[in-house]
Design brief:
The protein is α+β, with helices and mostly antiparallel strands. The chain is 36% helix and 28% strand. It is built from six helices and six strands, in the order ααβββαααβββα. A hairpin with a 5-residue loop joins strand 4 and strand 5.
């Protein structure tokens, strides 16, 4: 599995593998699920901590399929927001209009079926081939919310 992720990262990024893995390891300390997506090619590669919520999603594949599968774990009150923010069609339109990032806080269930606040932050990245790519950073906010802001309602 790690070899497949490494191969996909090399194919879809102009950053060296050593540089990419250093970045990924540092960022995963705060964001336990990171997704590199090539929206032009409709593909993604995911790196995640196995303990990150409920996620039987594949580590790589078709971006549209990942979004279709991922929306199942989002609370019904936030599914429209999730799709509005993170569907490939909407992201391509937003990036085409000059937007470089999208952020949302969503209510997502874990393996036990309990919901948690999660931040999802996508950032457009440049690619030498002209493909529209992004990195997606996912973080559980429960502890941040309680410790810094009080309990969410």
């Amino acid at each position: 599995m790690f070899d497949e992720i490494s191969r996909r990262l090399r194919e879809e990024s102009s950053i060296s593998m050593k540089e990419m893995m250093g970045i990924v390891n540092a960022v995963m300390q705060v964001y336990p699920m990171i997704i590199l997506a090539n929206l032009t090619k409709n593909t993604f590669t995911m790196v995640r901590d196995e303990g990150f919520l409920y996620s039987d999603l594949a580590f790589s594949g078709c971006y549209d399929d990942m979004i279709e599968d991922g929306v199942q774990n989002i609370h019904s009150n936030y599914q429209k927001l999730f799709l509005r923010c993170f569907s490939r069609e909407n992201l391509l339109r937003n990036y085409g209009n000059g937007k470089n990032e999208v952020y949302a806080e969503l209510y997502q269930k874990d393996r036990k079926g309990e919901y948690h606040w999660v931040s999802v932050h996508v950032i457009k990245i440049e690619n030498e081939m002209g493909d529209v790519m992004q990195i997606c950073l996912n973080r559980i906010l429960d502890k941040v919310s309680v410790n810094e802001y009080g309990q969410r309602k």
